[in-house]
Structure formats: structure tokens, C-alpha cells
Amino acid sequence: MKKNMIMLAALLIGLCGCGANKAEETPAPVEEKTAETAEQTEETADAEKKALLVYFSRAGENWEVGVVEKGNTRIAAEYIAETCGADTFEIVPVNPYPSDYMETVNIADEEKKSGARPEISDTVTDWESYDTIILGYPIWHGDLPMIVYNFLESYDFSGKMVYPFVTHGGSGLAGTPERIRSTAAGADVKDGLALTGKTIQNDFDSVKADIDTWLADNGLVK
Ligand SMILES: Cc1cc2nc3c(=O)[nH]c(=O)nc-3n(C[C@H](O)[C@H](O)[C@H](O)COP(=O)(O)O)c2cc1C
Questions:
Q1: By three-state DSSP, how is residue 222 classified?
Q2: Are residues 102 and 31 in the same domain?
Q3: What is the mean pLDDT of residues 144-159?
Q4: Count of domains in the chain?
């Protein structure tokens, strides 16, 4: 009899336990909902991410291309901005560079030697709203043009992802992503893309293919 009573008590406890488990299981859908909500929040945040394409480029006489109406970097920049759906900002110097190639080479050489920071004629509106900066520039004397350093030093890059692309006459990236890393504190600077100016002017279809691959690899296609 005593044994039966113990078994009955155990059964009752077991039944109560089941009830308790059921009660504990009730929040399960809430957990699911929370996960769903987190996913939705992430999606909303993704939708709010904005890309700004910043570039510096110079028209006129240039290396291996003769006199051009549109600078090499600008041609690439326009295509990239369109493909990514990015806003654009052109770094326009207050004092424009001459159309003559050798004159520009000499000015740029002086600027590099003196560590000049040529003035930029405009500022970016709503800088905080961008988390992705696609930065295009020509290689000048194996480096970024000094005006691009001015740009990098003028804005707070913390938390920004920076995707550099360069146009050049043979130097490639010339280690410039590394220089951007040390100048734009707090930026996550990705590996860059290098395009030759001559190919941009003469065979843009092959350049498009390189750009498309780079954008896709970096998840930058809209
Ligand atoms: C002042 C100056 C310096 C240059 N220095 C280099 C260089 O060191 N290495 C290189 O590969 N190309 C050099 N170039 C060629 C440019 O990088 C190339 O033509 C570039 O595509 C120009 O871009 P843009 O037309 O957008 O200004 C130089 C051009 C200029 C005007």
C-alpha cells in the first residue's frame, strides 16, 4: 500500500512536471519571434547602409592617352557609381591643375615634396549617413595626390569601410591602400582595384569586366 502511495505521488509529480514543462515551452514562439525580429532589424539596417563614391580626376593631357575631355578616374567612377547606386562626390581643387601634363607633373612633385594639402572647393553633405566610401584617385608620383590626403584628413573615417580604386600608368596600387589605412584612422580599408588609364580610354569594355568582378567580390553591386 505504502509502495502504491509512493508510486501515485511520483505519478502526480510527473504530471505536474509535464504541466510545468508545457508552461515553460510557452515562450518558444516568443523566442522564434525574437529571432525573426533580429533578422528584420538587420535587414532594415542593411537597407539603411549608404555608399558614397568619392573621386579625384583631372582632364587634359595625360600619360599615354593624349588630351582627354574626361579624366580616366572619372570615367571609371561614373560607371562604378551607376553600378552600385552610390552617391558621388568629386574632389575639385580650388586651384585647378593645368591641362599641360608636364606642368602638372612639376606642380604635383612640389606638392609632394612639401607635403602640401591643396584646398578642396566643396564638402560632403551628410557624411555620417554613409558607411561605405568608394575612393577613386590617380597615382601621382607613386602615391595618392596630395589633395586626396587633404580629403582623408578632413573627415572622420571611424566605422567606415573604404574601397579604394586607382587609375595609373604602370605603378598599380603603389601601396596606397596601406597609406589610406594610416591616414584615415578607424577606417576598415579593403584591398583596392587598379586600372590603367590607357585601357579606360581605349577599351572600356575590358575595364568594365574587371570592375564588375571587383564590385561583386566586395558585395557592392546594388
Ligand atoms: C602628376 C602626375 C603624376 C603621375 N605619376 C604617376 C606614377 O607615379 N605612376 C603611374 O603609374 N602613373 C602616374 N601618372 C599617370 C596617372 O596616374 C594616370 O594617367 C591616371 O590614370 C590619371 O588619372 P586621371 O585622368 O583621372 O587624372 C601620373 C600622372 C600625373 C598627371
A1: coil
A2: no
A3: 98
A4: 2
How far is the centre of ligand 1, averaged over its atoms, from the C-alpha of 148 (Å)?
A: 14
- Tell whether 200 is covered by a domain: yes
Residue type, 70: K
Q: Which numbered atom of ligand 1 lies nearest the CA of 75?
A: 26
Quote the pLDDT of residue 17.
39
Q: Are residues 79 and 115 in the same domain?
A: yes
Q: Percent of the chain scored above 90 by pLDDT?
A: 77
- Which atom of ligand 1 lies closest to the CA of 62? 19
Buried b (16+ CB within 10 A) or exposed e, 151-182: bbeebebeebbbbbbbbbeebebbebbebbee
- Note whether residue 222 is domain-resident: no
In the chain, DSSP assigns E strands to 51-55, 60-62, 66-68, 87-90, 132-138, 161-168, 188-189, 193-196
Boundaries of domain holding 8: 2-44
118 plus 34 within the same structural domain: no
Residue 220, C-alpha cell as written in the block? 557592392
What residues does ligand 1 touch, defined as CB less than 6 Å away? 57-58, 62-63, 71-74, 104-105, 108, 138-142, 167-171, 197
Confidence of residue 22 (pLDDT cuts 50, 70, 90): very low
Residues 19, 116, single domain; the answer is no
Q: Do residue 59 and residue 31 come from a single domain?
A: no
